[in-house]
Design goal:
Elements lengths: L1 E13 L8 H8 L8 E13 L11 H16 L2 E2 H4 L10 H12 L7 E9 L12
Parallel strand pairs: 1-3
Antiparallel strand pairs: 1-2, 2-4
Length: 136
């Protein structure tokens, strides 16, 4: 089995807020991230697929095709969007980095042909405002 990883980047804004809680409780748990105006991050996405090498093509998966799927299913949907307000899966789920990774997995898994989705890694790129949300 061979693992291949492809990387993409996108920028998005979001806020953390649990509708079942009071404003005070949201602020206690999420701090400045509970501000409904939101704040933005630059994200890096790494998608790893696993499979056997095709003896004819020499590929596990066509990396151009993988890039196209990532672009269509993630970058075009998330880039320069307010996740809470514009991306359907985050209308009822808090767009934490963990939940973003899960949502991306669900978007990509059925769309990858010829290989098995092995890993989705999402991380916020360091920036000058990294402590705005008490980043973990």
């Amino acid at each position: 089995m061979v693992l291949l990883t492809r990387k993409a980047e996108f920028s998005a804004s979001h806020y953390y807020y649990n509708e079942a809680w009071s404003q005070a409780e949201n602020e206690k748990v999420f701090g400045k991230c509970a501000n409904r105006n939101g704040h933005g991050h630059n994200y890096t996405l790494e998608v790893t697929v696993a499979g056997e090498i095709d003896p004819v093509s020499g590929f596990v998966v066509d990396l151009k095709a993988l890039k196209d799927v990532m672009e269509r299913e993630v970058v075009q949907v998330y880039d320069h969007r307010h996740l809470n307000l514009e991306v359907p899966e985050f209308r009822s789920v808090i767009p934490t980095t963990e939940n973003i990774a899960i949502a991306i997995w669900k978007r990509l898994e059925p769309k990858i042909a010829g290989a098995r989705l092995q890993r989705v890694r999402v991380y916020e790129m360091p920036d000058l405002f990294a402590d705005y949300c008490g980043e973990r």
